[in-house]
Amino acid sequence: MVPPPPGLVNLANVLTVTRLVLVPVVVACLLAGGTAWRVAAFVAFGTASVTDLLDGRIARSRGLITDFGKIADPIADKALTGAALVTLSYLGWLPWWVTIVILAREVAVTGLRFWVIRYGVIAASRGGKIKTLLQVLAISLYMLPGVPQWLRAVVMAAAVVVTLVTGADYAIRAARLRRRPAPGQIRRAP
């Protein structure tokens, strides 16, 4: 007997939606200005980042994977980091080129996902997880008042490098996957 599919309202999806709801909170706190608001932005961003860590694990371990979660989770991830980066750059705390490089990579990888979707899915790599961790850490350091600028810059530089390297790795893996026949398709010899 096949178990029924999980319902739309489940703990994993609630965590994903919570992350989406916290995006404007992070932006509003940063724009409000002042030390207390920066700390509030950091707390909201940290809370949202923890939901990213938990929702996937809970969905997999409890069999709560839904089509909504598959779509909403990456959107929530991109919305959180993208909104934080754009706001930090808008405030003049982070160079715009950093935000543009990171967001361009994310858009490119999303495009690659659509390009290869008929051929399969490329699982998240260890590098991709390190990229996310470094981006979250770097963004957090820019939010917190009193952090030495050199430390912010070093961690953000590491995040940018890993972001670019993992983007290139994803492109290579996508190209390899695309060369294989799609499921149910027979590839003819040249």
The mean pLDDT is: 88
Tell me, briefly, the overall form. Answer: globular
Please tally the helical runs, counting DSSP H or I stretches of 4 or more residues: 6
The H/E string reads HHHHHH
Task: Give the biggest beta sheet.
Answer: none
Number of DSSP-assigned strands: 0
Structural class: mainly alpha
Distance between the termini: 46 Å
Helix percentage range = over 70%
- Low-confidence stretches at least 5 residues in length (pLDDT < 50)? none
The radius of gyration over CA amounts to 19 Å
Q: Proportion of β residues?
A: under 5%
Brief synopsis:
The chain has 190 residues and is mostly helical. The protein has helices spanning 11-32, 35-62, 67-90, 96-116, 126-143, 149-179.
What does this structure look like?
The chain is mainly α. Helices cover about 75% and strands about 0% of the residues. Helix 1 runs parallel beside helix 3 (about 65-90) and helix 2 runs antiparallel to helix 3 (about 65-90). The relative contact order is 0.12. The mean pLDDT is about 90.
Keywords:
6 helices; mainly alpha; 190 residues
Fold blueprint:
Elements: H1 11-32, H2 35-62, H3 67-90, H4 96-116, H5 126-143, H6 149-179
Helix pairs in contact: 1-2, 1-3, 2-3, 3-4, 3-5, 4-6, 5-6
